[in-house]
Amino acid sequence: MANAMRFLGGAALALCLALPLRAEDAPTADTVVATVNGTAITLGNMIVAREALPEQYKSLPADVLFKGILDQLIQQTTLAQSVEGKLTKHDNLRLENDRRGYISGVALQSVVTGAVTDAALQAAYDAKFKDAAPATEYHAAHILVDSEEKAKELKSQLDGGADFAELAKANSTDTGSGANGGDLGWFGVGMMVKPFEDAIIAAKPGVVEGPIKTDFGWHLILVKETRLAAKPTLDDVRDELAGEIEQKAVEAHVAELTAAAKIEKPGEGIDPALLSDTTLLDK
């Protein structure tokens, strides 16, 4: 009889393991996976912790990741409990700021998602590129030195027939382009510092210009050739346009909420220098 009961018990256990979990028994975000001195850690806590991990950690085997995250949350909970009632004013203010910043991001998620649509991207593309004149691109080289005198000396050598590429290799402090004879490749407007760009735009192909002073030093510039740039496709500038649309949507939404809020600033008269006085946090 005892053997029979043991057999029936084993059979019942096997049957239970074979049956699917009932919906009400299936794990949820609220399922408690551990407790630390009565404080619950849930499956939801673990899922959110996994979301915050760098991508390389997410590729770990599920069992390794599960154990690692659970151990981490248990350790964090024990550490948090060890300082309950001992947090400083600085700690609590930091937590307030972190919470405010996170919730602000949540508030903007739907704004950003709703703003960047295919129609909005197409409209932004048309506004920016549909009737835009073809842009000019430049293929140029330069020699960069640290003094005007040195630049003038090299310019005299170039006027006398010296080879630009050879002088660049021997003298340019821009070692990246210097090794290539000063060649900067093709670039468009907006990619170089202003004095350099102005000189490029005004230069005639094949004629050495300079010396031109920038924050980097003194330049001798040779525009080799120019061309009209092909108009970018929507896919080429999709990320750029999406960023601009997001920024405008966020600014408009924040401005709308701010305008509707009752905002008072009794602290406007406070000495701005107090912003760096961390001793106030100890009072």
Structure in words:
With 283 residues, the chain is α+β, with helices and mostly antiparallel strands. Among the domains are: 26-82, no CATH class; 134-228, Chitinase A, domain 3 (Roll). The chain has helices at 2-18, 43-51, 55-58, 62-82, 89-115, 118-130, 148-159, 164-171, 175-178, 194-202, 238-260, and strands at 32-36, 39-42, 136-145, 183-188, 208-214, 217-228. Strand 5 (208-214) and strand 6 (217-228) form a beta hairpin. The longest helix is centred in the middle third of the chain and has 27 residues, at 89-115.
Number of strands: 6
Helix content: 40-55%
Give the overall average pLDDT.
90
Structural class: alpha+beta
CATH architecture assignment name of the domain at 134-228: Roll
For this structure, the quaternary state is single chain
Give the overall shape, derived from the CA principal axes: elongated
Terminus-to-terminus distance: 77 Å
